[in-house]
Amino acid sequence: MALAVHAPRLILLIFLVLQAYDGLFTYTAVRALGISAEGNALLATWMMLVGPGSALVGAKLLAAASGMFVYVRGLHRVLAALTGIYLAAAVGPWTYIFATWP
């Protein structure tokens, strides 16, 4: 029962950790391969304008704030879905890439 009460907080924590890992993985890839390693055209454009570090910090802060907004509004299932999607579509692929990095 206690786990069910704290599950939304755990999901938020996982969401925030995934944001941090995605930022670190993306920054590492961009430093090694250039901005073309970023698949998001909007983020790649911001990287060209303000630099990879600043663009990624801004993007991750915005994503974290959005996740916290969803949490505060009580949309815990939405946050859980976003966390799962983020794991599968962002952090999972980066993990695979770095695991097979030459």
Give descriptors for this structure.
102 residues; 0% strand; mainly alpha
Q: State the separation between the terminal residues, measured CA to CA.
A: 46 Å
* Overall mean confidence score, pLDDT: 94
Total beta strand runs: 0
Query: Based on helices, strands and strand pairing, what is the structural class?
Result: mainly alpha
Order of helices and strands: HHHH
Fraction of residues in β-strands: under 5%
What Rg, in angstroms, do the CA atoms define?
15 Å
Question: Count of helices?
Answer: 4
The low-confidence parts are: none
Note the overall shape: globular
Largest sheet: none
Helix proportion range: over 70%
Q: Can you characterise this structure?
A:
- It is a single chain.
- With 102 residues, the protein is an all-alpha fold.
- Helices cover 85% and strands 0% of the residues.
- It contains four helices and no strands.
- It has helices at residues 2-33, 41-50, 52-72, 76-99.
Compact description:
This protein has 102 residues and is mostly helical.
List the topology elements.
Layout: H1 2-33, H2 41-50, H3 52-72, H4 76-99
